[in-house]
Every structure is written in C-alpha cells, then in structure tokens.
Amino acid sequence: MADDPERQVEDVSVEEEMKSSFLSFAVSVIRARALPDVRDGLKPSQLRILYGMHEERLSPNASHAKCAGIVGHTIKYYHPHGDEGIYLTLARMAQDWLARYPLVHGHGNFGSVDGDPPGAMRYTEARLSPYGAQMMVDIEKDTVDWQDNFDQSKREPVILPALFPNLLCNGAAGIAVGMATSMPPHNLGEVVDACCLLIDKPKTSLDKVMEVLPGPDFPTGGLILGTSGIRDAYLTGRGSIVMQARATIEPLDHGRAAIIVTELPYQVNKAQLVQQIAELVNAKKIQTISGLRDETDRTGMRVVIELKRDANPHVLLNQLYRHTRMRTTFPVNAVALVDGAPRTLGLLDLLSLFIDHRRVVVTRRCQFELNRARERAHILEGYRIALRNLDAVIELIKKSPDPAAARKGLVKRFKLSERQAQAILELMLQRLTNMERKKIEEEHKEIIKQIARLEDLLANPRKLMRVVRDELVTLKEKLGDERRTRIKPEEVSEFRIEDLVAEEDMVITVTRDGYIKRLPVDTYRAQGRGGKGVIGLTRKEQDHVEHLFIASTHHTILFFTNRGKVYHLRAHEVPPAGRQARGTAIINLIPIQSAEIVTATRTVKGFAQDQYLFMATAQGTVKKTRVSEFDTRLKGGLIAIKLAPKDELCWVKLTDGDQRIVLVTQKGTAIRFHERDVRPMGRTAAGVRGIRLRKGDRVVGVELAPDDLDLLVISERGLGKRTRLAEYRVIGRGGQGVITLDVTRRTGLVVDCKVASPDDDILVITEKGQIIRQKVADIRRTGRVAQGVIVIRLDKGDLAAGLARVVSREDEA
Description:
Layout: H1 14-34, H2 44-55, E1 65-66, H3 67-77, H4 83-92, E2 104-107, E3 125-128, H5 130-134, E4 146-148, E5 155-157, H6 166-170, E6 172-175, E7 180-183, H7 188-200, H8 206-212, E8 223-225, H9 228-236, E9 238-244, E10 246-251, E11 257-263, H10 270-282, E12 289-294, E13 303-307, H11 313-323, E14 327-333, E15 335-338, E16 341-344, H12 347-388, H13 390-399, H14 403-414, H15 418-425, H16 434-459, H17 461-479, E17 486-488, E18 505-511, E19 515-520, E20 534-535, E21 545-552, E22 556-561, E23 565-570, E24 584-585, E25 598-604, E26 612-617, E27 621-626, E28 638-639, E29 649-655, E30 660-665, E31 669-674, E32 688-689, E33 699-704, E34 710-715, E35 719-724, E36 738-739, E37 750-756, E38 761-766, E39 770-775, E40 789-790, E41 800-806, H18 809-812
Parallel strand pairs: 8-17
Antiparallel strand pairs: 1-3, 2-3, 4-5, 6-7, 8-9, 9-14, 10-11, 11-13, 12-13, 15-16, 18-19, 18-21, 19-24, 20-39, 22-23, 22-25, 23-28, 26-27, 26-29, 27-32, 30-31, 30-33, 31-36, 34-35, 34-37, 35-40, 38-39, 38-41
Helix pairs in contact: 2-3, 3-4, 7-17, 12-15, 12-16, 12-17, 13-14, 14-15, 16-17
C-alpha cells in the first residue's frame, strides 16, 4: 500500500505552502476581483454583468428587464458567485450619485444618497444606459480577445471595446491584497478634449492637459478647493483632493438667516451628515443653530440650517466645514491593471493607455471589416464572371448531375474558387434581372473603395488615429454634459480659530480680586452726562473693577501682572457672562501665581515687527519693547520687565515707535514726552525713568498723546474734565510734569485718564459695578488747572474706578 502512487504522502513545509497559497490568493484578488483594467475601467464582475445584459439585448431602447433575471443569467454563464454581491454591483452601476455616468439605467428603488439600500432584485428592473451601450460598440467585430467561460460552455470577452472612457469618467474604488485603488470621476467632454490633445500632440505636458482637464467632476457637484492636490494626483497617481459642500446663505424673517446646502462632497451620506450636525448642536459644540431639516425632493437636494437671531452665518459655515463632512478629502490612489499587473498611474498614463486601447480596437475593427470586404469582393467578382458568361453557366448547371458536379465544373471552366462557385449556385434567379445585375456592379465598386480606404487606414497610423479622435468627438457631442463640480484655485488652509468665531467688539472687565467676563458693546447704551449708568457686575465684598477695555473676539489679549510678567489669552476664550454676573476667576484661564494681580492688559491682532509695547510702572519707570518679542505659545508666562523693589507694572500701550506719551499721577500732575526718548529694550530690561514723582504720589494713567486730541481725566468723586493735549508741551522724559487737575477734597484723587476725540464714546465704571456710556463731547473742555464737571453720579460709599474708550472699527483700521 505504501507503494501505491495514489496513496503517496508528500512532506511540505507549512511556511512555503502558506507563502505559495497566499500569493496565489493575492494574485487572484488583484487580477480577478478588486482592481479595474486600465482599458475599460471595469472589474471582472462588472464586465460580465454588462456583457450579459448586452447578450440579452437590453439596449437603451429596449424594455427594462427584471434584475433577478440579469443576475441569474450572469451567474449561470459567466460569474458563478453569490447573487447578492452581483446584484449590489449591478445596483451601484445604476446609482447616479456614485457613478458620474451610470452604465446601467435602473427602474425602481436603487437606493439613495442617504444610504438606503436598493429594493429586492425581484422588484427592480434594468437595462443598459447610453453610456453602457457605448462600452459594447463593435464587440462583434473581433475588436477584443475572448476566452472560455468557467465551464467552457460559452465564450466571454476578456475586455470590452469601451468607446466610452469609463475609468476616467466614472473612477474606481477597490481593496485588494496589499494594495487598493481610489480614482475620482471626471467630465466626459473634458476627458475627450484631453484625449484629442494627446492624439494631436503626443508629447503634450501635464500642465497643458490640465488646461482642458482641470480636475475631477463629481456626480454630486460641490466644490474642489485648491489645485495642488489635483496636480499631485495627476503627476504621481497619488494625492489628496479637498472637497466642500455647496452652500448658500438666505435671509429669513426677523433678522435671521439660513444656510442652504444643495450639493455635497462625493460619497458623503446626507442623512448621516444631518445627524452629525444635530449631534454637534446637542453637544453644544455649535450653539447658533435654531433649526435643521432636510427638504430634499425630486427637484434636488436641499438641507436647511436655520440660525439664531444675529448669528454670523459665515462663522457657522466655517464651524460646519471643520466639524462635519461638509468639507472632506478624496484620497487619490490611481492603481489599475496594465497587461494584468497592477500599476500606479498618472493622468498622462491613464489617457495614453486608453488611447492605445482605442487604437487597438479600431485597428482590429478595420482589419475585421477589411477581411469581410475582401470576402464580399471575392464573391462579387464571381458573380460578375457568372453574369458575363450567363448562358454558359446556366447550361453547365443544367447538364450537371448534382450540385457537387456543378461546383466542380464552374471552378474548372471559369477558374473560380470553391466559395465563388458555391455562391453562384446559391444565387437566386431574380438576381439575374438587369436591375439586379447593376446593383451587383455598384456594390462591387463600393466594396473596392471600402477595401482601399481600410487598407489606407491600416497603412497610415495618423489617419487611423484621426478615426479614433473623430469617434471620441462624436461621443462627446452625443453624450457630453456640463461640469458639475466647481474648482476654486485658492488653496485651502487649516482653519484659524478666527474662522470659527464671529468677529465682534466686546467689553471685557477684570476685577481687583481676579474675575473676568465679556459682554457685547451694545449691552451699554449711550447716556447723557451725569447719568446713573447701569449695573455692570454684581459686587463681591470689597471687590471692584480694575480693568475695563474693548477687544475684538479675534484679538489676542496680553495680561500683564504687577510682578512684570505677561500671559496670553484669545479674547473669544474669555467666557461671556451677564451684565450683572461677576465673571470667571482669571486663574482658570491663565496660570498666574497666587500673589500676582493683573495690572495691565493689551489687545493685539498680530505680533508685528514694526510695533512696540510701551510699559509704565506705578513708580514712573517706562520701557519700550518690540511686540514680536512676546510672540510665544508658552502658557507659563513671560518676563515683560525687571521691576525695582515695591514697584509694579501697571500700563502697557501699543505704539509704532513714533508717538508722544503722557503720564498722569493721582495728585493731578502730567508729563508729556516723545517716545523716541525711550530706546527699544529686551523683555528682561528694567526700563528708564519716565516722571519724577513727589512723595506719596504714583502714576494712575499712561496714554498716547497726539496734539489733535484731548486728555480726559476722571477723579474718584466722579468728576471729569478734558483738555487739549496741545496745552501740554512736550518736554524730555524724567521731569516732574505740570498740573492737569486741581485735586481737592471735592474732586478726590485722579483715578484714570484717557485720550479721546469729541466723537468718541467712553465707559465709566465704579467700584460697585455701575457703568455709564456717554459721548466725550458731553464733557466740557476746560483748561489744565480746572476741576471739571460731574460725569457720573455716585451712590453713597461708591467711587469711580476707571475709564474705557469705545473704539469704532474705522478707527481701529
């Protein structure tokens, strides 16, 4: 038994067997399942379904047939696999939101862009679309190779003639073993134009081709952002294309607006997108949406996103682009089978290989038609010989005992071929009439011309390629359509935080005990001089407002502390709070130490090289440092100035290096000097003397001081005055200054100062949180030594705490 050859056992290495078997499996998946052929852009399952439909004569003009019958025919003769997989492949070729040019025309429920599955195959019907029919043109003329089907009962095409450039127009997607393909669809007219350009000028550069074929054209429309990803994909076969939904903003009643989404990025599920937006709203990541509904119908896609009153629709759009699939990418990996092997192909390769395929198809068709024409010419020449010798031919046939003898006699006597003789024997008597004889002569002349034309085409490659070109142009004229996807050449960049936050001016207050909040400027309406104001915050025991300033939500706030350090915080990161709320502890936003107090703030749009931060301390020391030295992402703070013992950093101004500066003290003196008197210093420098203080005095305000504006000062008793800055002559830094307010018991000490114009508004805030907004023009202009007028009427025990100028956007620009 051991010697029985049928019972022999062979020792095989498991490792080698696994390698061999897996390699065979991988090759099978790559070549026979997952990757399309570069010539017709079809996988084997798709090819067999389409050919089966062609075989059943399901042309675009025919009636639809049950999909169950199409699937059954495909399984029976060509693709013996699961019916569900074949049906889903058939359905995908009919879905116009996945295929730019569907090869199958479906009738019934074939799913939806919301991800709904197609109906059961027993209910749905299909036939070839006009594009699918173009895949079969001339297939019967020996234009492609054929092979036996799985059981050798029929023959099937290895490839389709594919007049329609399917791979480029419909794209492809598939996952094989160790590789995958992902190719975007394109516009038929543009693909044909690119093919024609390469046929006319085979050495055309990629840039020239991209002038006629600028990028993909997705069936769902939408936008493509930037061209660098497209060019990378066309050059190397790999790239990333940024896609974006098409959305418009429509006004609604009562000052509201809505975002209308009419087109989605390719392969984005609309129902999942709507659900994703709803989840963002529920999670409060997006807080400006008041309504969300899908109004899509037969007329087209329409997703309505209603906004709350006064919400910025452009900011919301940016938030949606960042957090949802309204902006996404298409990863291009152009892998296709070339001569049975997978290759990564650029655009020029894809176009050239398709053109080569069409050249081969047209060549084989011409050769097929030439052979047929020669065969027909051969028969017609026999007819002509017979007609010239009609009586003798008839006599020979009459005297022949049987057809075989008659055939031999014709061959021998008239030097005919066996085929010619057989054709003469089969000639109907009616063809012997004079009219029919003329038709034979005319047909013979036409056949001779056709043979000459075909021989000329086959002998002249340029003329042959002209045929290829003309057929593609005719296809474009017949089935071409307009581009759906618009390409925006501007490259997309990462979203800045400013893109996701509405730009608006905010009032930001910081209290002595370290609480911060922001409110819209419009919260405080302008009032007349001497009004009581409105409550700006609820007072915490022994707490009062130290800083009040205006900032845009797109600005960066620099917080300077009494210890000479600086911290960064974006304005929109300051939590909003109600008018009477205390706010948020600032230690939750910036990492200040327990003994540190925010004593100065500055808002900046950017960290420009040509701007400076001018700093001043309570003891009159000043310093100038470039803004760029404070550009850092460190959250632990930076040293802004080296302080003397018992001194504190209190003021910081943004300058251009060529300003006049005014310092005001609490005992009513002021000094005005030019900024050039202070040289630029590094962050850790200690600065120089700005004003010489009298005993017990301290600086309470520092401002930029041009001649054409006024200096507005306010005392702790609510009295204010404004004086032209031109009355303060410019002197060198370090002096004692001049009187700016006659400080008495009635006025109290000076608490703050601001430089403003008569057209400005100011905010006055008290220690108990009262705020009043009023025009600067309402405060009477007086001389330097006057005591001023009542700006805000204070409650008993309350004192004025500070001023802020409301800056208009025009002034800021």
